[in-house]
Automatic annotation (TrEMBL):
This is Fructose-1,6-bisphosphatase, cytosolic. GO terms for biological process: fructose 1,6-bisphosphate metabolic process; fructose 6-phosphate metabolic process; fructose metabolic process; gluconeogenesis; photosynthesis; sucrose biosynthetic process. PANTHER family: FRUCTOSE-1,6-BISPHOSPHATASE-RELATED, FRUCTOSE-BISPHOSPHATASE. InterPro entries: FBPase_C_dom, FBPase_class-1, FBPase_N, FBPtase, Fructose_bisphosphatase_AS. It comes from Crotalaria pallida (Smooth rattlebox). Keywords: Carbohydrate metabolism, Cytoplasm, Hydrolase, Magnesium, Membrane, Metal-binding, Transmembrane, Transmembrane helix. Residues 203-332 form the Fructose-1-6-bisphosphatase class 1 C-terminal domain.
């Protein structure tokens, strides 16, 4: 029975990554150990997020609980979980979190060769209304683990060795790339294992969806305005695009990866660098989009080529289907040519 055979031949993420890593004979399993700690953090956060609504009802998460203790807000709790998981992996030497003003330099007792940048719970303002939220991460290698400096994390996104996200929604979906394509895994809570459900994700070359906060339209620049106009009133006789904007980056990106289209958080007069953070939002999602056959552009250059000047730097971003990003690049080039 093929179905039974499939059911027993479960491709767990650990097996999948071990297969991938076996291509590198020198690999000593450090990455697999790091990843298993990231996954542990995701399972914990998934469980806490799923209880958040209920906990709020009975006064636990984010409120004072029955013992009258102030419960940690979920994003603070998530940050602590990932810092502890990454530290105890003994495979990291430097951490940057959206929740922490300063980077964490781990003492060499021993520490590892990996640098992890992460947003422990992106979109957490959406928790109370039950919208999907997520953890976003990127992984760099340190040059010399006996001499770790902040420059080791102020690297362009094109130096990432891996990136991914975990979306806490109707199911817990983990999407990752280690540089040879993008694969998606879904948590089977009865096994506590992430199972391969979306092998070799490729973003459609064109898309019928655009995703942007139209509330910022008054402040957009000319290329952005023209691009959105072309989505609503196409001049080539094609059908207008649909607008889908969840306001939670992991959810908007996951849809864009699977269905295609354009996700954008452009610069505007109010915020010339846009809103999204370069290291742990723009770079990881741009890395995934390129690995899936799409593109990521800042309005000036390829997003992954940007060199951060500080760990919480922001950047505008247009990312998604190859042809959609090509269109916005042409509009910016034309605008530049016309001065
Ligand atoms: P706006 C959530 O706060 C977030 O960081 C991303 O997850 C999301 O894409 C963006 O901000 C939404 O921002 O300004 O449209 O509400």
């Amino acid at each position: 029975h093929a179905a039974d055979a499939n059911r027993t031949d479960l491709m767990t993420i650990t097996r999948f990554v071990l297969n991938e890593q076996s291509k590198y004979p020198e690999s000593r399993g450090d990455f697999t150990i790091l990843l298993s700690n990231i996954l542990l953090g995701c399972k914990f956060v998934c469980s806490a997020v799923n209880k958040a609504g209920l906990a709020k009802l009975i006064g636990l998460a984010g409120e004072t609980n029955v013992q009258g203790e102030e419960q940690k807000k979920l994003d603070v709790l998530s940050n602590e979980v990932f810092v502890k998981a990454l530290t105890s992996s003994k495979r990291t030497c430097l951490l940057v979190s959206e929740e922490l003003e300063e980077a964490i330099f781990l003492p060499p007792t021993p520490h590892g060769k990996y640098i992890v940048v992460f947003d422990p719970l992106d979109g957490s303002s959406n928790i109370d209304c039950g919208v999907s939220i997520g953890t976003i991460f990127g992984i760099y290698m340190v040059k010399d683990k006996n001499n770790v400096t902040l420059d080791d994390v102020l690297q362009p996104g094109n130096k990432l060795v891996a990136a991914g996200y975990c979306m806490y929604g109707s199911s817990c979906t983990f999407v990752i790339s280690t540089g040879s394509g993008v694969n998606g895994f879904t948590l089977d809570p009865s096994l506590g294992e992430f199972i391969l459900t979306h092998p070799n994700i490729k973003v459609p070359r064109k898309g019928k969806i655009y995703s942007v906060n139209e509330g910022n339209a008054k402040n957009w620049d000319e290329p952005t305005t023209k691009y959105v106009e072309s989505c609503k009133f196409p001049q080539d006789g094609s059908a207008p695009k649909s607008l889908r904007y969840i306001g939670s980056m992991v959810a908007d990106i996951h849809r864009t990866l699977l269905y295609g289209g354009m996700f954008m958080y452009p610069a505007d007069m109010k915020s010339p660098n846009g809103k999204l953070r370069l290291l742990y939002e723009v770079f990881p999602m741009s890395y995934l989009m390129e690995q899936a056959g799409g593109q990521a552009f800042t309005g000036k250059e390829r997003a992954l080529d940007l060199v951060p000047s500080h760990i919480h730097e922001r950047s505008p971003v247009f990312l998604g289907s190859y042809d959609e990003v090509e269109h916005i690049k042409e509009l910016y080039a034309a605008c530049k040519a016309n001065g």
